[in-house]
Amino acid sequence: MSDEQWFYCLKHGTVETADGCRSADRLGPYPDRETAARALELAKERTEAEDRKDREWNAGSSGSS
């Protein structure tokens, strides 16, 4: 197993190592190239999960003042 970290470049839509584009233009680090390639999918899944938690929390707190 490698200690190398992988990133997904939002500007170019590519997977790269630490020596790639600037940090503001990428997601990561990820443990491997395959996970970095799924960065947008993972971000979408995490956002949907957090949005679901927010809706559940707001629904539970709507009955109290």
Helix and strand composition category? alpha+beta
Q: How widely separated are the two ends?
A: 53 Å
Lateral arrangement of strands in the main beta sheet? 2-1-3
Helix content: 40-55%
Order of helices and strands: EEEHH
**Biggest sheet features:** 3 strands, antiparallel
Structure description:
- The protein is of the alpha+beta class.
- It contains two helices and three strands.
- It has helices spanning 33-37, 39-61, and strands at 6-9, 14-17, 26-30.
- A three-stranded antiparallel beta sheet has the order 2-1-3.
- The mean pLDDT is 92.
Question: In summary, what is this structure?
Answer:
Residues 43-57 have a biased composition (Basic and acidic residues). With 65 residues, this protein is an alpha+beta fold.
Features:
alpha+beta; single chain; 65 residues; 3-stranded antiparallel sheet; 3 strands; 2 helices
How does the SSE layout of this entry go?
Elements lengths: L5 E4 L4 E4 L8 E5 L2 H5 L1 H23 L4
Antiparallel strand pairs: 1-2, 1-3
